Amino acid sequence: MRIGWADAAAGLGRGWAGLQRRWLDLTVAGLGRRGLGLDLRANSLRWVDLVPGRDGQARLSGWGRLEVPEPVCDAAMAPSDAAVRGLQSWVQGSGLQGRTVAMGLPSAHVLLRRARFRSVLGGMGRLGAEELAAYVEGEAAAWAPFPLEELALDFAVLGPAGPADAPLAPAGAGAAVDSTASADEVEVLMAAARQDRVRARQAWAQAAGLKLAVLDTEANAALLTLRAWRPPDGQLAPGEALGMVDVRLHELTLRVMAEGEIVFERSEALGPGFDGSSGLQSLGRLLQHFNATQSARRLIGLAVAGDHAGAPDQAQWLHSIARLAGVPAWWLDPFVHLACAGPNPPAASPPLARGAGARPAPDEACAYALAFGLALRSLSP
User: What is the mean pLDDT of the chain?
Assistant: First the structure.
């Protein structure tokens, strides 16, 4: 069973929310029939609003961005007064006040561990939610690099433990991961993040007049987007991998999907003032690392996402990526397969850019890749 935090999170927080104040409570029952994803970047907010269609496929209801000064928007900090004013103006113009929202944390800020626990205690019946939560807390104390009082913890039961596969992350100390299955064991995915990181995301949502309902990793948001997008050359065959290049203001990240999972993720810092040359140098080093660590997988293409305003020529930038990697490169337009849910609205004035029914151009739409994945996550039951 392939599982990521995004997939498991539908069960997080149920049955034991509020057990201890430091436990994460990231999923709210009854999210409604709309999915709102909010991607917090170094100098902007991107949002995507989806609704489910009658055919079960998501439909695009709205999308937009809010540009804020770089010193104001720090993902690790609560919003400043200037950011709050911008957020309030943004919400008033977008009509999103009071909505539940899914947001992401950088994967480097989230610890994931997979472990096995006995589901039946001798003479005591099956483990309840509180007993399992206590086991998870004890397990986290063994592998977490921070004191428990500084952590927000969460977990999801993946199901009966089967033969051990490659874990999502190294198993925690004391987690028995062997090659034998036991009917009395369950496999549990544990997640931990610094409380200050979680509170910062909550503060951003609250300042925007939104309710944080789902907190996921950015890697899983990217995974959901890649699964929905589909490469132009068709689905991946066994042994094939699809890369995603995500450019931010001061960072370039390479994520690679294979067998329906993110199997590689690594970032490099970019110097002040992004340009195509520095981005290509960073991407070249990341591709070398991927090839060295994932030699059994063949990269068949790169989906390019993020902000590319610093690239002098968008078409040339895409061509340079393809030439560097030796594989095709495409703009990752997350909206390409979506039907629209409504008519075009009147144009919005800066700093708010917004659309509903209409789609942005592919080289602009790629900046909404993570917001789109988070919106899909918010639609999950």
Answer: 76
